Amino acid sequence: MPAWEDRTQASQFRARVRRVGQTAVIDLLGEINGFADEAMAAAYAEAEESEPAEVLLNFDGVDYINSTGIALIVGLLAQARKSHRPLATCGLSEHYQELFRITRLSDFMSMYPDETSALTAAGSATAGRATAS
Amino acid sequence: MTTLRSFWQNRVRATDRQEPEAPAPLAPPQAISWLDLDMAATDPLIAYFQHAPQATDIRSLALDSPALARLKAAGIQLVIPLVSQGELIGLINLGPRRSEQEYSSDDRKLLNDLATQAAPAVRVAQLVQQQKQEVAERERMQQELRVARLIQQTLLPQSVPQLAGWAVSAYYQPARAVGGDFYDFLYFADGRIGFVIGDVTDKGVPAALVMATTRTLLRASAERLVSPGAVLERVNDVLHLEIPPKMFVTCLYAVLDPRTGHLRYANAGHDLPYRRCGDAVLELRATGMPLGLMPGMSYEEKETTLQPGDTLLLYSDGLVEAHSPTRAMFGFPRLQALMAEHPGGEALTGFLLEQLAAFTGAGWEQEDDVTLVTLQYTAATAAPEEGEMKAEFELPSQPGNERQALARVAEIVADLPLAPARLERLKTAVAEATMNAMEHGNRYRADAPVHIAVRASAQELVVRITDQGGGVSAQPAAAPDLAAKLAGDQSPRGWGLFLIKNMVDDMRVHDDGQQHAVELVLRLDQATE
Questions:
Q1: Which of A71, B272, B378, B440 could, after both became Cys, cross-link B492 (CB 3.0–4.6 A)?
Q2: C-alpha span between A67 and A88 (Å, rounded)
Q3: Mutation site, A67, A93, A101, A104, interface B, largest B CB count within 10 A
């Protein structure tokens, strides 16, 4: 077993799921690195249980994302695409928005500055689903 | 044998006249068969008809002519030559008359008139057909050349190595027929650079395809093998099984350590590179058979150390085998003498091309591809200013410690003129490089800390992150492809090196066999956002 799996260092990450209208909001808190794996997966599974129209990852409380964290987000995005559920983000700092652009995650996930604008867009997207692409 | 095939596939025969009312002939006329007649240009029948262009009963003709024999065998009786501008361009061949009577003088006169009228028209038709065939052939060849050029241009490097203290240039000019020249640069994780120059026998698409195969084999072998001789040996053994008969590849492969100027090289029958060293021009000689000729070959390996100011020239035979209008060859002695005249460096390429143009004269049709790669050890920038040590520290290899690394580095560089966005990028690069050092270099061993040193000069900030995992040949990582990752074709991981490279202005890797170091470089002497 690789040493890091000993989890000697407690995870600095927590996730909380809220339902706002048709959107499941996952509040991410702390550092998104290898330690966040289980909590991220559990939060996403919980969010999907209620069959939301969209899942919104709220990065307001996140101060660090490393390459392993990027990989976890790629994993969530793959799941969301499999169930044809839009996955969006809000609250990313300018630096992490740049990382999302460089990695092309932004091609697959809408990025909003804050939760309000994300929910507004989600509401209109849901209402206009018949015509929106 | 030159044949008049296109002119002589005539299928003219006597018209079968239908006479349904007539009784069946007592003795049916001799049947004649369809005739595809290929005539050699030397067949005496051609000369005969050119001199006697009139209807001729060939039964009485006695010539040592294979064509005449075939005409007789096919039942032809009367032949009327079609002659245009003194050239025999066709025959009207008639079998016996149905009436069993001989052809009358009126018949012959009519046929001669017909032939006189028809010959120019037939000639025009032949020329049109010939031209159409030539156009089609030219288009086919042009298309083949386009494909060959495309293959070569796709596979040749788009840029030359940018090495501190070195100036590298590459020039490639394909001949009209596109030869099989190629060159390549291979980048190793420890900072060494591989230089390849080669030439495939043959031209066009076959040469381009063999070039592509050779390049791939070289790259694959160079990833696993350090010794240039061993690389060529491996490529030769595999290529021998793949290459079409009578084709082979000459190739020089050299590996340069830009920090020391040390050069190891092996040569598979390629033109010897020249090294300009002071006023002397030396051949770098290493022996070996061209690639693909026979298996089990070994390749002599030599080494030398280039000194500041030295220039190395790799070239193809398109240069040395170019001819002057008087058919003199450019040759190796001339090239060697010209190199001695010129101070070297990137300008050497332009100088040699000028000399080549002067030698071949105006209107020269380039006979073969011309490829020139120069490498100069520019002493002026050989030792970049190292910068003042601002701080250095060590961290235990434990998961999560990369955050300490980025926080410490951020504190250390706080007084440097770094825009906030560039500082954030540096922090991400430091974190990723530290993670790599802890995980892949030190394998999270408690007794193997990661060493981090921060230096800064007026020009650049360098963060050097060192682990104990030197000597392990790292495979070049494939660029992460998000679509492939989402489709499950690639692991979701593998972003670290990609992020580092995108976060800093330069990333240098050093490996002394024991320690592995990554230098993250941010320029401080240019405008930043």
A1: A71
A2: 19
A3: A67
Please tell me the distance from the alpha carbon of residue B259 to that of residue B70, in angstroms, as a whole number: 79
Question: Is residue B384 over pLDDT 70?
Answer: no
Handedness of CA B94, B96, B98, B104 (dihedral sign): positive
pLDDT digits (tens, 9 = 90+) for A119-129: 998 774 443 33
Q: Choose between B214 and B524: higher pLDDT.
A: B214
* Residue whose pair of structure tokens reads 């209109």 in the numeric block: A124
Give the DSSP per-residue string, B127-194: HHHHHHHHHHHHHHHHHHHHHHHHHHHHHS-SS----TTEEEEEEEE--TT--EEEEEEEE-TTS-EE
Burial of B306 (0-12, 13-18, 19+ CB in 10 A): buried
Handedness of CA B386, B389, B390, B392 (dihedral sign): positive
- What's the pLDDT at B150? 80
If you average pLDDT over residues A2-7, what whole number do you get?
A: 36
Residue B444 to residue A99, Cβ atoms within 8 A: no
Residue whose structure tokens are 């190629």: B182
Burial code (b: 16+ CB inside 10 Å, e: under 16) for B69-99 equals: ebbeebbbbbbbbbbbeeebbbbbbbbbbee
Number of CB atoms found within 10 A of residue B453's CB: 18
Q: Cβ A9–B398 below 8 Å, yes or no? A: yes
Show which residues on chain A lie within 8 Å of chain B, measured between beta carbons: 2-4, 8-9, 12, 31, 33-35, 64, 66-68, 70-72, 74-75, 77-78, 81, 93-95, 98-99, 102-105, 107-108
Closest Cα to residue B166, out of B375, B459, B385, B342? B375
**What is the model's pLDDT at position B31?**
52
CA B145 to chain centre: 11
Residues A102/A95, Cβ–Cβ less than 8 Å: no
Q: In this complex, do B403 and A64 lie within 8 Å of one another by their Cβ atoms?
A: yes
CA dist., res. B253 & res. B221, Å (int): 12
CA distance B513 to chain A (A): 24
Q: Is residue B211 within 8 Å of B200, Cβ to Cβ?
A: yes
Whether B403 contacts A64, CB under 8 Å: yes
- Give me the residue label for tokens 């007539």: B22
Which tens digit of pLDDT belongs to each residue from B136-171?
A: 988 888 888 888 778 877 788 878 888 888 889 999
3-state secondary structure B231-295: HHHHHHHHHHHHCCCCCCEEEEEEEEECCCCEEEEEEECCCCCEEEECCEEEECCCCCCCECCCC
| CA–CA dist B401, B214 (Å, integer) | 45
Q: Rounded to the nearest 5°, which phi and psi values hold at B505?
A: -75, -30
Q: Which residues of B touch A2 (CB under 8 A)?
A: 444
Task: Write down the pTM of the prediction.
Answer: 0.46
Contact yes or no for B376/B256 (Cβ under 8 A): no
